[in-house]
Design a protein that fits this description.
about 350 residues; alpha/beta; 11 helices; globular; binds NADP nicotinamide-adenine-dinucleotide phosphate; binds zinc ion
């Protein structure tokens, strides 16, 4: 077994604190990784605070993991020692269901094995990337861009793919008007990616504070949703709206902003059900849909896309002792735009 140092939440009410544990020795198809950076996703806060059912404590969060390969099993073909490597939200899946076979492991019929707060095939809990090392099957590891700073690429592994996948699925591109709701960790990747795909991009933000950043990141337009005129002047406008916000917004205000055949796609996770009015959907054949991260093949495609377009995350790199403070700042929307933990700070 490999001795590992990390940070864990002992219970849903506990702050994160140092935690020592063990990982499996690399098997034939495994890579062992020295974790260099791990992004802090808003989901880490939902999870460590037990906001979703089925929490497994102690919980070592982290699914935006960037590091370097330190060892490979005898059957590994994709990686060698010294390669830059990434791990996102999944470390395995059944591999045999129709979704896995098509490369949609995130929709695995038996549920994917998540990078943390999940159980491996042998029943042991999975522990995430707020830690100094990781062992993963090479099929669930990604090749990281070599032309961009590794720390700034860590957030691509969740925030990046969570926006890339719906932007691709709903065909964002030239001639398409795309709105991104919420300029946070997910949203700021969505703006950059949608812009690079050639779409006309609008940011809908809950204040005016981020307008200059939105434009710098590639937004063509910016509107504050605190201004009630926003919802009248933008009616029927967008082909695609991606909602990254976990606060309980009135989704009916947004479906009315869709053009005919437009889609309102939910990636943020509100704490309770949101009622939907039928009329705005009927009058314009509009859709409400959802999306979760992306498959492994698509995640590699996204990383290669970001390398080609030189896109990465705006990051504030922190030492791991600051993680609880960072959580509070994320809840206040006080991060531009992703905290990334420098694992060298893990003593
Ligand atoms: P984040 O960095 O905290 O961003 C959320 C954004 O929501 C904020 O930056 C803010 O942007 C906006 N917001 C709107 N109303 C708000 C309010 N009343 N208070 C605070 N912020 C408000 O979070 P994230 O990491 O991007 O994650 C967003 C959500 O997506 C979370 O629920 C997370 O669990 C979920 N998620 C889903 C997936 C998936 O696969 N579907 C993957 C990762 C995360 P403005 O200031 O611009 O309004
Ligand atoms: Zn995430
Ligand atoms: Zn499957």
């Amino acid at each position: 077994m490999i001795k590992t140092k990390g940070y864990a939440a002992a219970t849903a009410k506990a702050p994160l604190a140092p935690y020592a544990f063990e990982r499996r020795d690399p098997r034939e198809h495994d890579v062992a990784i020295d974790v260099k950076f791990c992004g802090i996703c808003h989901t880490d806060i939902h999870m460590t605070r037990g906001e979703f059912p089925g929490s497994i404590f102690p919980m070592v969060p982290g699914h935006e993991i960037a590091g370097v390969v330190t060892a490979v099993g005898s059957g590994v073909t994709k990686f060698k020692k010294g390669d830059k490597v990434g791990v996102g939200c999944m470390v395995d899946s059944c591999r045999t269901c129709a979704h896995c076979q098509q490369g949609f492991e995130q929709y695995c019929a038996l549920t994917p094995i998540w990078t943390y707060n999940s159980r491996d095939k042998d029943g042991t809990p999975t522990y995430g990337g707020y830690s100094n090392n990781l062992v993963v099957d090479e099929n669930y590891a990604l090749r990281m861009p070599t032309n961009l700073a590794l720390g700034a690429c860590a957030p691509l592994l969740c925030a990046g793919i969570t926006l890339y996948s719906p932007l691709r699925h709903w065909k964002a591109g030239p001639g398409q008007r795309v709105a991104i709701v919420g300029l946070g960790g997910l949203g700021h990747m969505g703006v950059q990616i949608a812009h690079a795909m050639g779409a006309e991009v609008t940011v809908l933000s809950h204040s005016t504070r981020k307008e200059a950043d939105a434009k710098r990141l590639g937004a063509d337009h910016f509107h504050s949703t605190a201004d009630p005129d926003t919802f009248t002047k933008l009616r029927d406008r967008f082909n695609l709206i991606i909602n990254t916000v976990s606060a309980e917004l009135d989704w009916n205000q947004y479906t009315k902003l869709l053009a005919v055949d437009g889609s309102f796609v939910v990636v943020g996770v509100p704490g309770k059900p949101i009622p939907i009015e039928a009329s705005p959907l009927r009058n314009g054949r509009r859709s409400v849909a959802g999306s979760v991260i992306g498959g492994i093949r698509e995640t590699q495609e996204m990383l290669d896309f970001c390398a080609k377009h030189q896109l990465s995350s705006d990051v504030e790199v922190i030492s791991i002792e600051k993680v609880n403070e960072a959580y509070e700042r994320i809840l206040k929307s006080d991060v531009r735009y992703r905290f990334v933990i420098d694992m060298a700070s893990l003593k």
